[in-house]
Specification:
By secondary structure, the protein is mostly helical. It folds into three domains: 2-61; 65-192, no CATH class; 207-424, MetI-like (MetI-like fold, Orthogonal Bundle). 67% of the residues lie in helices and 5% in strands. A three-stranded antiparallel sheet has the order 2-1-3. α8 (207-238) crosses α15 (380-388) and α12 runs antiparallel to α13. The mean pLDDT is 88.
């Protein structure tokens, strides 16, 4: 009577093994499909990212070079009076230099076309040269001056020669003559990295926006980091667990998801309208961005504190340390790498924000370089926004070049986060 029972049990066991084997096969096939889908998603993401970077770099790298025209400038003493060098007719010197190279040009229309070959910034360059060295007066000096943006775009290949709406046939002939004589050259565009904004694309630079972003981020860091870390330490280590702390935690999590433009509206209502702080100043921008980054820093700092093993706290308290000593000397140093990482990530988000800065007036056209926290300024993302809205083709490459600079800053900030985490990391 035992044999049928044994045979039945063996059959049931075999069927169970077969079912397990079949399910394992399906599971392995599902895992392979999932891995393939994940790998395909990663490949697609990398391709899209590569396409984005190639597009931005392809459009923007040429902005780091500028076309210059060589003029033989005679610093006419009749024009450059010693008692009025600042207000002298420097555009007249540029026009005379161009007419000296093309003496056959006559007629008002042709002269205007000829004068358009040189940038408006040429006169400012000559003024700076004379103010720096008045001994140039009465001499003829070869000077490389920036070319007009249409000439620059033509030589960079961004403008077609048959586009008669921008450059006419005579201008193309003059440009070819200058190129044949070696009087046109492309050089590194230091103006783009060292000057402020301008209506003329060939004179526009990002240094004013970079300094505005720097002053704004300094205010943001000085306010958000100590307040955020202190709030995280209190909530995680000292605050009692009751409905009030639960309410605070819920509000912090909600504030982290609030659209950034809401913080801009808050800054407009409180800092500008109520406290009457200066509009379009890095001080106000830093206050607004500090409010925006505080929830991110608090959440990241609390996560870093939670990651510290409880045994560290218990050991410190066991050898007689007070709770404050336990937090300051043992828990906080171990959580510091995570806090720094969260802070830098929050600062990187603040660096790329535009909407809250638009609400407080940092969208203004600012030519001068800001020298303090209260000077009118703009920020690099806002500068990109302004240039992207400009119709000139030369501003397209300036926009892409500014994006390249902004991405460079973000890469540096993320690299700094990694280095600081490695520097302060402690293993247990």
């Amino acid at each position: 009577m035992n044999k049928p029972s044994t045979a039945g049990g063996a059959g049931a066991k075999k069927r169970t093994v077969d079912m397990v084997q079949a399910s394992l096969g399906r599971r392995y096939r599902s895992e392979k499909r999932f891995r393939r889908m994940g790998m395909a998603a990663i490949v697609c993401s990398m391709l899209f990212l590569a396409f984005l970077f190639i597009s931005i770099i392809g459009n923007g790298y040429s902005a780091f070079f500028q076309t210059f025209v060589q003029l033989d400038v005679f610093f006419d003493p009749q024009i450059l009076k010693q008692d009025a060098l600042t207000a002298a007719d420097y555009p007249g010197l540029v026009k005379k230099s161009l007419l000296a190279m093309f003496p056959d040009v006559s007629g008002r229309s042709d002269k205007r076309s000829l004068y358009r070959l040189a940038s408006n910034g040429a006169s400012f360059q000559l003024r700076d040269m004379v103010l720096k060295d008045p001994g140039l007066i009465g001499k003829t000096v070869p000077v490389w001056v920036p070319a007009d943006d249409d000439v620059d775009m033509l030589l960079k290949g961004h403008l077609e020669r048959n586009d008669q709406g921008r450059l006419n046939a005579k201008q193309l002939g003059w440009i070819d003559w200058l190129a044949a004589k070696g009087r046109i050259d492309k050089r590194f565009n230091w103006t783009f990295l060292s000057s402020g904004d301008s209506r003329d694309p060939e004179l526009a630079g990002i240094w004013g926006a970079v300094m505005g972003s720097f002053f704004t981020l300094v205010i943001t860091l000085l306010l958000s980091f100590p307040i955020g870390v202190a709030a995280a330490v209190y909530l995680e280590e000292f605050a009692p667990k009751n409905r009030w702390t639960d309410l605070i935690e819920v509000n912090i999590n909600n504030l982290a998801a609030v659209p950034s433009i809401v913080f801009g509206l808050l800054g407009l209502a409180v800092f500008l309208n109520f406290f009457n702080l200066p509009r379009s100043a890095p001080l106000v921008g830093g206050l607004v961005l500090a409010l925006m980054t505080l929830p991110t820093i608090i959440i990241a700092s609390r996560s870093a504190l939670t990651a510290v093993p409880p045994s560290i706290r218990e050991a410190a308290l066991g050898v007689g340390a007070s709770k404050m000593q336990m937090v300051v000397h043992h828990v906080l140093p171990l959580a510091l790498p995570g806090m720094l990482t969260g802070t830098i990530i929050g600062m990187a988000r603040a660096l790329g924000e535009t909407a809250p800065l638009l609400m407080i007036g940092m969208v203004a056209f600012i030519v001068d370089i800001p020298q303090s926290f209260t000077d009118p300024a703009t920020a690099l993302p806002v500068q990109i926004y302004l240039w992207a809205d400009s119709p000139e083709r030369a501003f397209v490459e300036r926009t892409s070049a500014a994006i390249i600079v902004l991405l460079g800053f973000l890469i540096v900030m993320n690299g700094a986060a990694i280095l600081l985490r490695k520097r302060f990391e402690r293993r247990w």
